[in-house]
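Before the break, one more example. Copy the sequence into your notebook; we will annotate it together after we see the structure.
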Amino acid sequence: MKHLAVAVAFVTLSWLPLSSPAPGAVPQRARFGTMPDGTAIEVFTLKNSHGMEVRTISYGAIIVSIRVPDRAGRLDDVVIGHDQLEGYLTASRFFGAVVGRYGNRIAKGRFTLDGRTYELAVNNGPNHLHGGVKGFDKVVWQAEPFSSGAGSGVSYRYVSADGEEGYPGRLDVRVTYTLTERNQIIVEYTADTDKATPVNLTQHSYFNLAGDGARDVLDHVVQINADRYTPVDAAKIPTGELAPVARTPFDFRTPVRIGAHIADDHPQIAIGGGYDHNFVLTRTGSGLQWAARVFEPSTGRTLTVTTTEPGLQLNTANALDGSITGKAGHVYRARYGLCLETQHFPDSPNQPAFPSTILRPGETLRSRTEFEFGVRR
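Here is what the structure looks like once it is written out:
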């Protein structure tokens, strides 16, 4: 199968400072809404001196909006979601949220650890997805805004009780967002436990670099640093194979339009209804390495993703069907956003050959992903 290769130079430009806030300015905080039990939800606004703005809320540690310039300097919001808390409570689709305790799927909501079988909440056909019925995307996090030499940010903390959604162990989780002067959002995760437990945390923003949330992402050009991916069965559970991307619709080793092969006659495309697959990132060490690059031709916006994680889930919002009305009254249809979820592989607790996701007492999970925005002139 011949792939359409698009010659694109992914360039992140330095921005000239504006008169707005100095590096490391203290985030603004305000009320975003109230939970049904009366708990107040706060919104924190991070800004840098180039005009970039990130808004995040204490419910689900959700990134509500990311405003970045295009090649003409115009600021637009490049993630889809809701203007008000009610939308996230009733029609979330995980928009912008931190998902866990285990991001992605665990087959049949079951795994065996140290000789004991655990039964998890089943919320995705026969499977467990993104932490269950009430995962980390649906809880209120404790928030601590901060400023530092690196930028301005918010540190969120949530303590997941032993047995929550079926998982063993009390898990103490922190997720920190930092907006830098390089137009980066740095996402850092840490977690500690008192019992062995699987943990797989990720950020579930749907990006649309066109910036208006009113059109699909099929013209976005994507490059992914992966020679292999993990094919899935009809229930979207990995088969265990690490299949080569060569000569398949999953070959993003060179820049390719999302729409070029999203409707190809391929069994994996049919299962996903498009792209909803984990890519095995090509890594040469344990530190930060680039995972994906995205370019949106009409605005010139670029996004570069680097991570310490071994995998990346490309999700092209295939399940959006026009039933959700989001920001500014936009109706979200299939492929109006794309997720780039840095992660360990789906169903790893049941797949011994996959990188382990088991965190044990005395260990600290540490993971970092950076989303860097720029433009191509």
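The chain has one domain: 28-375. The first strand starts at residue 28 and ends at 34. Try to locate both features in your own notes.
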